[in-house]
Amino acid sequence: MDLHQLWTIISLPDNVPIVLLMFVVPFYTWYALRQAFANDRLIGELEANPALAKTHHRKTQPWKPGWAKEVHVWPFLLRIEFLAAIIVTLILMIWSITLNAPLEEPSNPTLTMNPSKAPWYFLGLQEMLVYFDPWIAGVVMPSLIIVGLMVIPYIDSNPLGNGYYTFKQRKSAILTFIFGFIVLWVTMIVIGTLIRGPGWMWFWPGTTWDHNRLEFAVNRDLPDIFGIKGRVAKIIFGAVVCGLYGAVAGWFIHKLIAGRSLMIGKWKLIKEQPFNQRIFKRMSLLQYAVMQTFLIIMLALPIKILARLLFRIKYVWVTPWFNV
Amino acid sequence: MSDQEQDKDPVLSSSLSRPLFIWSALLLLSLGWGLWDEIYGTRPWKSYQAQFAKVYTAYLRRVRPHEAGFEKEIRASADYRKLDSEMQAAEKTVSAQVAEIDRKVNQELVPRILALNDPFQEVRGHIGALTYQIETTDSESSKNSKRQEIAKLRQEKHSIKLPGDEKPEEMDFGLMDKTLQDMKNEKAQLLQQRVEILKPATELRAQREKYVSDRIADVSADTLTGLITKMQDFDIHIRQIHIKDVELVDRCESCHLGTREPVTLTKADIGSEVFVSHPNKELLKIHDPEKFGCTPCHGGNGAAEDSVLKAHGRHKFWLWPLHYRENFEAGCQQCHVKEIVTEMADTLNSGREIFRRRGCMGCHRYEGFDREPDEMTTVTQQIRQLEQQKAEWTREIGFTTDKADKTRSNEEAQRLYQHANDLKVRITGLDAKIEQADIRSSDLIREVKKVGPSLKEVRMKMRKEWIPVWLEDPHKWRPGTKMPTFRLDPEEIRQIGAFIWQSGVTGNLPSQAKGDPVKGKEAFETRGCMACHSMGEGNERQGGDFAANLSRVGEKDNYDYIVRWIHNPRERTLPYCPFERRDLTAEDYKKKGLPFVFDMDHDKCPNDGHELQVEQMTPMPSLRLSIDEARDIASYLMTRKHDNVTYAAADYLDDPQLKSKGQFLVRYYGCAGCHEISGLEEELRIGTELTKEGSKPLERLDFALLGHEAEDQGWYTHKGFFEHKLQNPAVYDTGKEKPNKFDRLKMPNFNLSKPEIDQVATFLLGSVDSTMPERYHFDPADQRQDIIDGWWVVRKYNCMGCHQVHIGQTTVFMVLPRYQDPDWKDQKPPSLIGEGARVNPQWLMRFLTNPSLSDTDANRDGVRQYLKARMPTFYFSSGEIQKLVRFFAAMSSQAAPYIAPKMEMVSDQERTMARQLFSSEGAPCLKCHMTGDPKHDARATAPSFLIARERLKPGWTERWIVHPEMMQPGTAMPSGLFRRDGERWVFAGPTPPSFQTYARDHADLLVRYMFQFTPEELNRLRASAGAGAGR
Amino acid sequence: MKSIFVSVVAASALFVAGCGGSKAPETAKEESAAPAAAAPAIDEANAATVTGKVSFTGDKPTMRNIDMSANPKCALAHAGAAQKSEEVVVNGNGTLKNVFVWIKAGVPDRQWPVPGTPVELAQKGCMYGPHVIGVQAGQDIKIVNDDPTNHNIHPLPKINQEWNESQPPNGDPKLKKFAREEVMIAVKCNVHPWMRSYIGVVNHPFFAVTGDDGTFSIKGLPPGKYTIEAWHEKYGTQDVEITVGAKESKTQDFDSAQMKSS
Questions:
Q1: C-alpha triplet B614, B617, B621: angle, nearest 5°
Q2: Do C162 and B1030 touch (CB under 8 A)?
Q3: How many whole angstroms from its chain centre is CA B475?
Q4: How far is CA B964 from CA B285, B960, B971, C27, in A?
Q5: Per-residue DSSP letters for B195-262?
Q6: Maximum Cα–Cα distance across chain A
Q7: β partners of residue C226
Q8: Is the ipTM of this complex over 0.85?
Q9: Please, is B778 exposed, middle or buried when counting C-beta atoms within 10 Å of its C-beta (0-12, 13-18, 19+)?
Q10: B248, B296 in Cβ contact below 8 A?
Q11: Please, what is the Cα angle at B18 between B12 and B24, to 5 degrees?
């Protein structure tokens, strides 16, 4: 256990945000959900009692009969936001005083540092480079991410949940977000920061980052594993595999969006979701198609990562133009 | 607690005032903190400067009274008071006049001038403005009108009352101008007068001040007071040196404020190491910080100043960290690359010397070291190019001529013929060039030396059994020897030994009669062997460390060979032909029907006419000893051995199987870098080049598995890498899995001491790809270049073992116990400080070529026959002699070439006088100087006058006889022989009567006499001296 | 009466010095500033004396004759009997002449008054006389040349500054001095190689040279523990620890056999 090594990584001014991230993100997730569940209970209560719902439609906790229906933004919201602003400023102040930007040696084009890492907020992308070929990971994925974020408002046909925390009214949205941001984005940043050492090799926290370390790992393309020779054959095979995946994933995701139950044998993987069914009805075909595509791709990401990490599969679909 | 309270809506009822207040307060605090951090936290130099102001002022106040008291004493002295009173008197005498002048100027003239100035200026300004308008307007009419206006202004009368006049005066412009000028001139005259009058007084004052300043060693009290006042308005700001073209910014002096103070500050004075002044002010004068900055020499990050660590660049992200104390001089190497000796950088010099002497450059190329082979290639190339050029031109001549023959017009023909002729002439120029190059190349063959002895001679020189013992660990057998310890396993030793032994050449080696060890010992200790060789082990060790310690030679060497070696170390068994790459044998000569003779005069290969290597490649010179003396010394050396040591028989050295394996190993370990070995003469270096090693990126230095240890222990730096490598060359193999031994690090262990390691590390740390532009590099075009070149030769042949070459240097002889005895003191070889000013370069050239200065009797010293120690014959190449002669000339800043000054002949009368003086009891010249009478010369302690004429320079000679103690404190030549009498030197002792009337300089007379000295004159002198004694 | 007063002063001075341990540097500074002032007065009252003789054991070496033929004038001076080398001179009473005896260690570190009278070093008959002299650091040495020939005086110190000056026949005497303690300084003459003399330079007045009776005596020694050294040109040195009380007079003999050349 090389604590000195661990400390040098953690205490690096660049890495402080990530270390913070590891604690802050889970905390706020929990905190938000807590509020959401509380509100959901209230909503349930009001739905059970229409009379009450008429007179009171304050949808958020804390709530008691006889309390104001609405609360003014000024002062009740602003003062809290102001307080938050103060606290954040304070934190930033102290941070900027105590941690100077790290200064490193004069640049030398003939000599790149090892490991050479991107700024922490890009480490996720850099980590992706391990699993996809540069074209996909460096160009396609980032643009897809941006486009995906842009289309959210258009494909979100769920009118509820504005201005208050709720889980049951926005289950799928929240889960998707948690999956996309926390599972994919944040974990990859953490891996890229704390676990990737010299030569971008995998060092478990607390092991020494040894520059002389050598590692034997052959990554093979899926077609090769199946002993498929010939370019065309490979292209076809890859396309087939990807197609299959698309089909399976699409079917699965469809069940989710449509809120239908999914039975395999006698196991119920997904149970009926009347609410989703209602939302599904409001969806146009375009909205549905877009959502499907993005969800399929998103789901592909971790699958590919695991395939690489566990089964050492380099690419699934090998073509002269791109590799997946 | 009531339900009411419980039922209150927390959102509406709760108040945030407290948290708001607390957090705002904290924010405010952090703001304060931020400000503090900005102003002081990140600017530690401020507190340094504050502290400096305090301690420095305190120090100044402390020392001032003492200085002041000291000065009071001076001011109290009679001379000072005399000067002072004179000065006062002078001032008094003229005070009246001066006062008068001052009155005239200040009371009368100045007010009048002022009074008239304003109205005059007014008019002039107006005219000027109008003139401008005239020049700029186009219309003639307006021009004219303006002209009239000006004319009017000029005529216009002004009534001005100048102070001193009773009634105002009517003046027009011209008059005003004139009067003003007159008054100004008058004033100037008066002031001039004043200066004239005061001149004597002023001069006296200057004298008085000089008197004080002459007697104050350190800074004067006034200076101190000045400094104190300066310190009073000392303001805190960044002190920075900015050198534009290098974009160098050094702020070191923001904390190190004492560096350039006029007062010398030590840690004791000022209590802190930070503020001490630069230890070497002289050095600082040569390298003015305003031009050189600090970091180019010292390293560190000159621009950083927010923490000591960063400013000193002592973190892994700064490539040029501040040099540690033991490596300070590494900075010099940055610009002084071409030198082997740099004044005032002893550590660095020793480092270079170790690198050269221990043969590092045998494996590691280092630009400038071991330069002969490099130069050799360039010269041969040059020759080839010249030959080509010559061929081209010859062809062109042909073309042009028949072109001319055929051409129509005569003019054209003539032009072409002319061109052809020009080319012919130019070709002769080429021939001259080629000749020079040829000379150089043959010189170079002679100049190439090897660090270690030639291994071709082992069969004739060595005892077979000794070789494996030596190979196993040279330092065990002979502690501190040049040869490093290789990590060889027994098998490798057998193989290497076998190859070396079997590749040895054999030749005829006459067997020698035994000599007398006792006489040999004496000779060894007095002839000068010990200037390079040392004798005795442990604490008994005496002598120089330039060459081997000979305490155990008796165990390893062959007597006959040693005799030959001592008699002439350069004698070679077989000549080597670089072109055929092999040693020639008698057969080669027989085939061509030539006698088997090879030496300086027969140095061409019989097969292909190329230059041969006819010498041993050793710097060891010949002492021109008689064969008997050589035998004596050899027999003495053979007695030098440990008793009852036995060597295991080593017959396997003759096993031919081992030989081939051995050759591979010898190549692999780079033995040929230092030794001459048959078949491997032209081997290349096996190590990495080190010329720029100091600036190699740290990542490129292979710490192997020690990287982390190094970082934890803080030696993950160039310094750390070098030191550990030198301390144990195999260190970076620790823990590595290298089953194949040829993958392992092969650098052998030189067993350097800690100081030696520091010296070499300093040298390597300095060997950087300099960040300074060319013009900073020390590559002078003047005489200093000769000094640089000369040092290489001086070091190469260890002249400094016997001679003092530069001031402050000690020679081996100076410390040898024998030469501490008063009787032996004068037996030391002469000091060469000022040699250039002393001797005639022509003569020096002859002397260096043949120090015996005689073709018949080589077994002697040309100048000082009385010295037991002898100037050996080094068989210098002509190039080396040129370098040396230029070196000495440059060292004493003598113009080259030397043109002897014309000397006035001594008149017969002067000659008789000088003769009388020489032979008088008062002037003991002939008592010590050699006279040619063997009985006397045996005891003489100074050279003969006969060689003075061609050897010495008259100017030096005069300076010498007048003040020998200045040139060589403690010389045998007594001082005080002459005393100053007015403008001339006169002999201090009783002079013969003939001198009474002689009004000229005695020293000059004697010098002229000496420079027209002849053997006959010497005989006469001897006779008269003898006669004088008889009476 | 006076002596009592002196001793009181001395005592008080010692006392001050004794308790001035803490502020030693100051006192040191003062001394360097004005040496004479701070130095305690010499305690003549309790001065002790060390006397003794340097005996010679072993068979008397015969000294070689000096050949002065190289310089007739010198030879003339010894026309009668050839001058013998003075390397070893054994007196009639079996004692050794020209032995320099001095207090090597233990003498209180203070400024000892330097005698104004110079010590004479004569050059007569091309010999230095006396062969061995002792002077106090800073004391003048008066060098005279009584010979009709030119001499040059060439001391070869290791610590002090070396010099070499010629002195014409019957030239006016030279006054020279050595600033630092050094035992011994050999003096030679380059013109007459056989000439040799030795000068012992000592910081304090406690030294002596044995004469024709081979005895020496060192007077005015403050009570205390000392190392006495006897030095001889050929036989080397012999050190002896000795303790003297107030007003005590000790005898301490030396012997050439005990001496070991360093």
A1: 95
A2: no
A3: 33
A4: 31, 5, 7, 44
A5: HHHHHHHHHHHHHHHHHHHHT-SS--HHHHHHHHHHHHT-------EEETTTTEEE-GGGT-TTTT-S
A6: 76
A7: C242
A8: no
A9: middle
A10: yes
A11: 120
CA C37 – CA B830 distance, rounded (Å): 48
End-to-end CA distance of chain B: give it in Å, rounded.
144
Instruction: Report the relative pairing of strands C165-167 and C151-156 from DSSP bridges.
Output: antiparallel
- Sequence letter at residue B35: L
Partner B contacted by A70 (CB < 8 A): no
- List the Cα angle B756/B761/B765 in 5-degree steps: 155
Q: What is the DSSP string of B556-619?
A: HB-HHHHHHHHH-TT--SS-EETTTTEE--HHHHHHTT--S--BTTB-B-TTT-PBPB-S-S--
**Going edge to edge, which strands form the sheet with C182-188?**
C132-136, C196-202, C182-188, C151-156, C165-167
Residues of C in contact with B971 (CB under 8 A): 164
B chain contacts of residue A68, beta-carbon cutoff 8 Å: 9, 11-12
Q: Do C190 and B826 touch (CB under 8 A)?
A: yes
Range 696-725 of B in CB contact (< 8 A) with A: 697, 699-700, 704-705, 707-708, 712
What CA–CA distance (Å, rounded) separates A61 from A38? Answer: 6
CA distance C228 to A173: 106
Residues C141, C176 contacting (CB under 8 angstroms): yes
Partner residues linked to C244 by β-bridges: C224
Q: Are the Cβ atoms of C71 and B927 closer than 8 angstroms?
A: yes
Distance CA(B730)–CA(B706), nearest Å, equals 12
Asked if B705 lies within 8 A of A212 by C-beta distance, the reply is yes
Alpha carbon dihedral B1012, B1018, B1020, B1022, in 10-degree steps, equals: 150
List CB contacts (< 8 A) between B936 and chain C: 70
| CB atoms closer than 10 angstroms to residue B701 | 19
Subunit contact B988:C166, Cβ cutoff 8 A: yes
Contact B860, B629 (CB under 8 A): no
Residue type for B449, please? K
Place of tokens 């953490």: A190
Beta bridge mates, C102: C207, C229
CB B441 within 8 A of CB B383: yes
Per-block mean pLDDT, blocks of 10 residues, chain B (1031 long): 61 87 96 93 92 92 83 83 88 89 90 89 92 91 91 89 84 90 93 90 87 76 86 91 89 94 88 91 92 92 90 86 94 92 94 95 91 88 94 95 92 94 95 93 91 94 94 94 94 95 91 94 95 93 94 94 95 91 91 90 88 92 94 96 90 91 94 93 91 90 90 91 96 91 92 96 93 86 93 95 92 92 88 94 95 88 90 95 96 91 90 86 82 82 90 94 90 89 87 86 92 89 59 31
Separation between Cα atoms, residue C163 and residue B973, nearest integer Å = 10
Contacts of B604 (CB under 8 A, 6+ apart): B610, B611, B612
Alpha carbon of C48 to those of B332, B850, B1030, C53: distances in Å?
Answer: 61, 67, 57, 17
Determine the residue type at B563: V
CB B357 within 8 A of CB B408: no
Interface test with C, best of B921, B975, B977, B1031 (most C CBs within 10 A): B921
End-to-end CA distance of chain A: 37
d(CA C94, CA C55): 6
- In terms of phi and psi (left: phi > 0; alpha: psi -120 to 50; beta: otherwise), the region of A147 is alpha
Contact B115, B162 (CB under 8 A): yes
Q: Which residues contact B474 (CB under 8 A, 6 or more apart)?
A: B481, B483, B484, B485
Residues ≥6 apart with Cβ < 8 Å to C131: C86, C89, C97, C98, C196, C197, C198
